[in-house]
Amino acid sequence: MTIKQMIFLIVGCVSLALGCTGIVLPILPTVPFFLLTVFCFANSSQKLHDWFIGTRMYKKHLESFVQKKGMTIREVLKSAFSFLFELEVQMNEICDHL
Q1: pTM above 0.90?
Q2: pLDDT higher than threshold 80 for residue 79
Q3: What is the DSSP string of the chain?
């Protein structure tokens, strides 16, 4: 394994961890980290790339995006609700400090 492949492997693992954290935390985006994971795993190891493509996380969050089908209405509403909820929480924090 070359140095370049090792770097891609390390960055891919870190982005996978951040993407998984983004599933739980609404403030952290999931899709960009998973896209970075796919890119890094594809450049580091075909075996890792094939593994990630077969996971439920990939199929749930990225498959429609990669196939250029876009987001479903449910995904759009879920994202919008998460954003508005977090905005409300932040605004309450700001108002409490005033």
Answers
A1: no
A2: no
A3: --HHHHHHHHHHHHHHHHHHHHHH-TTS-SHHHHHHHHHHHHHH-HHHHHHHHTSHHHHHHTHHHHTT----HHHHHHHHHHHHHHHHHHHHHHHHH-
